[in-house]
Amino acid sequence: xxSSVLAVEGEGFVSPGPGTFVYPPAFGEGxxxxxxxxxxxxxxxxxxxxxxxxxxxxxxxxGKTQFVGESLYGFVRNSIALDAIGxxxxxxxxxxxxxxxxxxxxxxxxxxxxxxxxxxxRIAIPLFLAVISCxxxxxxxxxxxxxxxxxxxxxxPSGIPWPVxxxxxxxxxxxxxxxxxxxxxxxLTFNMFAGHLVLVLFILGGEYLIFEYSGVVGIAxxxxxxxGSLVLTAFEGFVQLLQAYVFTLLSALxxxxxxxxxx
Amino acid sequence: xxxxxxxxxxxxxxxxxxxxxxxxxxxxxxxLLFLFLKAKVYPIFExxxxxxxxxxxGGIAKAEKAQAEAAEALxxxxxxxxxxxxxxxxxxxxxxxxxxxxxxxxxxxARTEAKRILDAAQSQIESERQQxxxxxxxxxxxxxxxxxxxxxxxxxxxxxxxxxxxxxxxDDLEGREDAQAAALPGRxxxxxxxxxxxxxxxxxxxxxxxxxxx
Lengths: 263, 214
Description:
By secondary structure, chain A is mainly alpha-helical. Chain A has helices at residues 35-56, 64-84, 93-108, 124-145, 147-155, 162-213, 215-259. Chain A has seven helices and no strands. In chain A, helix 1 crosses helix 2 and helix 6 runs antiparallel to helix 7. Chain A starts with 34 loop residues before the first helix and ends with a helix. Chain B has a domain at 130-213. The interface between A and B is large, with 63 and 45 residues.
């Protein structure tokens, strides 16, 4: 799969660009599954298998796998759903937990040895999840307050002098319907995108410095770059988990907002 | 630097353009994952959580029950203790009352008894005194007459004689007492004597003597 990165040696160094994120079909010409798609499929499968094993022998006193699975689920349940939404949030724990596990896995794939590509840096993945979250919280609001009531509450919140509505109503509408899913998508995508780009830059740049540029300066600088890539990998892992958490938490907050009387 | 290096095999599309195939694959993968976890995993976790909570709450409830029972037992014990104390106090008070009553009763009884004994003694003394008085009255006359007759009967020549006479009389008296004790009739010692004083009625004395000597 790394066949997409074709380094042509001896011609100077060109920084990795958006093309880094484009892969040809994984199984040769004519097939259509690419590396990011494989990561999505295998990552989902891994999550399913892990949680199946964690829940298979449910016991009052959990084993290691069960403990980890329960802790992850309990984290989403208590620290995201209950904290951001409250008691009614328990209904949305399955969605939020799945979003968190799905995104965390596809983010972490960016630093997973041999895989080393965050599937979520492909905008399609965060986009469809953001759209689902957007549809979900809007549907909750509309179901609760009715179509007119929902948009009235959203665009014309009470307790504000009417001229303000001229400004506020379009802003609120755009913010809720467009900006929210958009920011969810872009925040996650480009955190992963930038993180991956930096890692690729450090690793390939270091490699280039050591093997192509050569000399004392090249080897020294290349070593520093490669060591830096290790630090950045650890940092990237943190960012990946954090972004999965942020995406899930914001989805929960939007759902919580739709469940409340006043926006 | 002769020219740009071809690092990437594929042309550079915009990273903002979502790939439809990826959306489809991602959506299917996510949906299947969601359905699987929702059906097979989350309910088990929730059930385990609930069971654990129930177990902990059950334990707490049990502990609370035990505590309540202990408190109840303590209360009961304290109540019993207080009751016992009351009982003891009541018994003590009763005992004190009874003691006072008994002492009072005993005192009254003693007083009554003492009074009775005193009364009896007094009446006895009185009767004895009466008896003694009667007896004395009976005897004194006789003795006086006896003595007088003797005094009169003897010559009054000298004092020594008089004294003898008196002593003899006294001896007689003692002897008569003995005789009286032995219930001897008569008085031979005084038979020969003659009263010297005419004032003392001899006949009367005799009569008296006989009465006394009976």
